[in-house]
Amino acid sequence: MLAIGRALMSRPKLLLLDEPSLGLAPLIVQDIMQTISRLCGDGLSVLLVEQNARAALEISHYGYVLEMGSFFVQGTADVLRSDERLVATYLGNEKPTRN
């Protein structure tokens, strides 16, 4: 959160984020993703690099999935979330549970 806040101080037009959820507890990941989503809603463009594909696709408009350094699949978040190959490979078949 501090790194995001620091980056926002310069009033960027594009915010680049590399693995903002790395090593964080699930509840903190939710907070980070909600913050990113709010920033997008406020008109800020965000380029998010994230291994947590499920969390990233929940807040994204468009996504690119890389495999071995090459594009595996790309498309709108809705299309990617419903792509059977992507679900089987990266998302799993289970929906996340909320406590």
What report would you give on this structure?
The protein is of the alpha+beta class. It has a single domain, classed as P-loop containing nucleotide triphosphate hydrolases (Rossmann fold, 3-Layer(aba) Sandwich), CATH 3.40.50.300. Helices cover 44% and strands 23% of the residues. It contains five helices and four strands, in the order H-E-H-E-H-E-E-H-H. Strands 1-2 form a two-stranded parallel ribbon. A two-stranded antiparallel ribbon has the order 3-4. The longest helix has 16 residues. The chain is globular and about 40 Å long. It starts with a helix and ends in an 8-residue tail after the last helix.
CATH superfamily: P-loop containing nucleotide triphosphate hydrolases
Give the beta-strand count. Answer: 4
Shape: globular
Give average pLDDT, whole number. Answer: 89
What is the CATH C level class, in words?
A: Alpha Beta
Tell me the domain tally.
Answer: 1
Measured by DSSP, the beta-strand proportion falls in 15-25%
Strand order of the largest sheet: 1-2
| Helix-and-strand structural type | alpha+beta
Q: How would you sum up the major sheet?
A: 2 strands, parallel
From the 3D structure, determine the CATH topology.
Rossmann fold
CATH architecture: 3-Layer(aba) Sandwich
Distance between the termini: 23 Å
